[in-house]
Amino acid sequence: MNHKVDLKNLTLPALEQFLRGQGKERFRALQVFKWIYQQDARTFEEMTNISKELRAELAETAYISNLEAEAVEVGGDGTRKYLFNLGDGHAVESVLIPIEGRNTVCISSQVGCAMACEFCLTGTFKLTRNLTTAEIVNQIMAVRHDVRESGEEIRNIVMMGMGEPLHNLDNVIPAIQIMIDGNGLQLSNRRVTVSTCGLVPEMERLGREIPNVNLAVSLNATTDELRNRIMPINRRYPIKALLQACREFPLPGRRKVTFEYVMIGGINDSLDDAKRLLRLISDIPNKVNLIPFNEHKGCGFKAPTQAAIDAFHTFLIDRHVTVITRDSRGGDISAACGQLKGKLEKGKSDLVTV
Ligand code: SF4
Per the residue annotation, which of 93, 135, 202, 260 is the catalytic one? Predict the structure, then answer.
């Protein structure tokens, strides 16, 4: 058992406290923090502006973790899907989506997920465990390492991979604090998006503790009857309560709540659904992401027809809603959440091992 402290679990104030506990000056924490996040230092040896004695002391009580990709799947459109082995027999995935030179990384927050949404492959794995703050941050750092090799940077982070981020807020909040720290990963909070299936009290906590992050809500149904069926969380926090939490969420100026809507053939893809959706969200600054359902084994749902997608999309656009219908980006590499892990468990033959 490793009793040393993983420094990547600590925000800058927490690192200051940790080092103060060892009788060290406050500025030491800033030095170490910058080495870790800006210089990507993986050992204390690399921290050359810190005395040899302190480096040796740190190595006695702490370590700096990393994630190495076990497999990377590269899509024809440049999308890269990473599978990270967590070292305890579990794995999570992250996806790099290069959109017009703006690299967006979609990261995971849990191994599996407890929310059991009926259309989602991750949901079928159930929740195994929460990711630590370090494991969340390390997904970004591992992808950044790759991206920097081609002289680029990461612009956006979306927490839409495996797991429900708001079900792991105790680790997600420090991870976001590290992402947006000017001495840490130096991302603007406007460039971080947290996606939720609708944990209402946790939405309020997130907004209170980290105002100005972007919020995405996985809505997927326009009646409680259907949402109760395909997203069990709705039985606890029905649509009305969820939308009220959206209205109260402290968004960055002039930003919009993104409503994710997985279109499932014959279930939620009619024009009546589109009309109800418009009514529900019209008094919230909004944009809509339509995500055509990707058929997968073990789930009886069907993909929507192209005609249904087009009609839904056009109905909303004609009423001045900003709508993006997710293209097949990542479709050829199974970017819908959880699907890479599903594949990996069936066999690694179609993955590029790195
Ligand atoms: S859609 Fe999201 S919240 Fe629902 S089961 Fe999948 S990972 Fe969990």
Answer: 93
